Amino acid sequence: MSFKSSTPTDYEEMRRILTVYTSPYSGGFDLKDTFRLPVACAFRSFNITPSIEYFYGQNKMDYNLEKYDYGETYRQIVNPEFVFHNGSNVEPYFAWIDNQTEKVWIQTNDENHVDIHKTWIRGCDELNNLYMLDLYINVSDNSAPEFIKTLQTTFNMDVGDT
Question: Which residue, of 29, 31, 60, 96, has the greatest Cβ tally within 10 A?
């Protein structure tokens, strides 16, 4: 596909394939994927942004798909799968979907899960059209702060004569 012309149709087609992130910084942080996957074969796909931020060890946390306008797309899927980008199942690794409430739930006490997890909620509708929701789950470290100097504490207790 060539984008030498600048017609609105060409621009819209290009926008479905690439997402451009502008930044005043260079190399100061990881950029998100710029390709909107898998537009080439999906009937409808969305990049859910921003990513879900979760600290390992905290209580389970929910992400409401309906609240962020993805509920309608999710309801089109007959048998949704919740998978990593490599195709392996997310459930019950550290996250799962509650079909009744249309919420993604996250909970883990395992420090090995600290990472950015690239996931998809995918499946077909009754007409066999593929729907995909691209979702990043950032499981952050929840360790105690490391102090530069030894923490000094003092405790004074005046005990009066009794």
Answer: 96
Q: Report the half-sphere exposure of 129 (CA within 13 A, side-chain side).
A: 12
Residue range 62-93, pLDDT digits in tens: 988 887 678 888 888 898 899 988 888 888 78
Residue ranges covered by each domain of the chain = 38-140
pTM: 0.62
Q: CA of 123: how far to CAs of 33, 74, 101, in Å?
A: 22, 9, 18
Cα 137 to chain centroid, rounded: 3
β pairing state of 44-55 and 103-106 = unpaired
The CATH class given to the 38-140 domain equals: mainly beta
